[in-house]
Amino acid sequence: MSAARSRMPAAAHEAAAAAPGTERHWGKTVVQALLKLAYPALILCAWRWDAPRLVGCMLFAILWLQRCAGNGPVATSLRRMSALDWTVVGLLSCASAAIVVTNSELLLRLYPSLVNLGLLIAFGATLVRGPSMIEKFARLGNPDLPPGAVRHTRRVTRVWCAFFVLNGAFSAYTALYWSRASWSLYNGALAYGLIGALLVAEVIWRYLVVLPRAARSGAA
């Protein structure tokens, strides 16, 4: 009985010590989620403001906050960035800075196309040097991917590259020929609906085709 009593304070102390860490984890998750939503929300609202320079400042801030906030000290976060990361971030930083300097609505409208270009560079580079981007994501939940799953993740990465090409080209078309409100609606909402549809389609294909096929191969 006395041993049980002695363990109870220790357990309570461990739980109390773990609580702040859990709160910090949730805090970082919330911050990261809000920053991911900040970009499309900003583009969706941009048509209401006749202030490209202000939007450019916000784009620059969001870009760097996404890479620094929630990942520990800024210096540690920046040290994790590869040369490719710096290339993409540099491209978007120069674009947002150009919007601030020129106050150009056209440059602002072309910014989503540059985001697609940056994503194409990031995903496409992993197809050259490996592992593919989708394989990296998949290994976060399952480090021991079978060869069939690795091939599937590579194919999915190619699909995403094709999507970024098409979406980036269409985004440029909206920037040049659509009204401000229509451009904002597509690049701030509809494009993300397409991304969600592609994600859902990939999950359905994986569970209905890829995984059953891998199970049959394993059984054989």
Automatic annotation (TrEMBL):
UniProt keywords, alphabetically: Membrane, Transmembrane, Transmembrane helix
Membrane-crossing residue ranges in chain numbering: 83-102, 108-128, 159-178, 190-209
Protein name: Intracellular septation protein A
Lineage of the organism: Bacteria, Pseudomonadati, Pseudomonadota, Betaproteobacteria, Burkholderiales
